Amino acid sequence: MQSGMNHMTQQRMLQAKALSKEASRGLNLGKKISVPKDVMMEELNLLSNRGSRMFQERQKRAERFTVESAADTSNVRKREMELATQ
């Protein structure tokens, strides 16, 4: 029984040494998977989860703000032109 445990202990020690050598060289975690932007946007356009609904609401607010801001800017320019011509 003692020799069986010694064999298991030796195997574990060899595995630990191999892992230690690999760690000292730097772990190879493999290639990073990149998700194409169009796939992410497609998932965000689904109404199936809360995150995509929140994203769509934010997009609507941003679009409304942009449109309102552009309209305000054009109104200010019109007023400036009217004041300049007087």
UniProtKB/TrEMBL annotation:
Signal peptide: none annotated. GO terms for molecular function: actin binding; FATZ binding; telethonin binding. Pfam families: Calsarcin. Residues 1-13 have a biased composition (Polar residues). Keywords: Phosphoprotein. GO terms for cellular component: actin cytoskeleton; Z disc. Residues 1-23 are annotated as: Disordered. Belongs to the myozenin family. This is Myozenin 2a. It comes from Amphilophus citrinellus (Midas cichlid).
